[in-house]
Design a protein that fits this description.
four-stranded antiparallel beta sheet
Length: 110
């Protein structure tokens, strides 16, 4: 996983709303989508983005204000981690690799 000046985590209820927020964040800021975690069958989604500190901060602000009716009820948290430790990046990469392996195994079983 590439080195990023900052990492942002956004936790939101429901996969469709997470997709809307991710689209707005990527369009409004120069950030990279790193990974996502789905819990409870997609009813709780954590998005992970990376980029410069100012770009990630801007993306998190976009997520908070993209649609006030949605974000007020469904946005559970948004946090910026500046200068993430290598262990954090390894943890995020490990989660992504695990989800890719599961997806590959599911495709082979079909």
């Amino acid at each position: 996983m590439a080195d990023y000046e900052a990492v942002g985590l956004v936790e939101v209820k429901y996969f469709t709303i997470a997709s809307q927020l991710l689209d707005a964040m990527c369009k409004g800021s120069n950030v990279d989508f790193l990974s996502s975690e789905n819990y409870l069958g997609g009813r709780l989604v954590t998005l992970v983005i990376g980029g410069s500190i100012s770009e990630v901060q801007g993306a998190l602000e976009i997520a908070k204000h993209v649609n006030p009716e949605i974000t007020a009820d469904y946005l559970k948290g948004a946090v910026l981690i500046s200068n993430p430790a290598p262990e954090i990046m390894n943890y995020l990469a490990a989660g992504k690799e695990d989800s890719q392996q599961i997806s590959e195994e599911e495709n082979q079983n079909e």
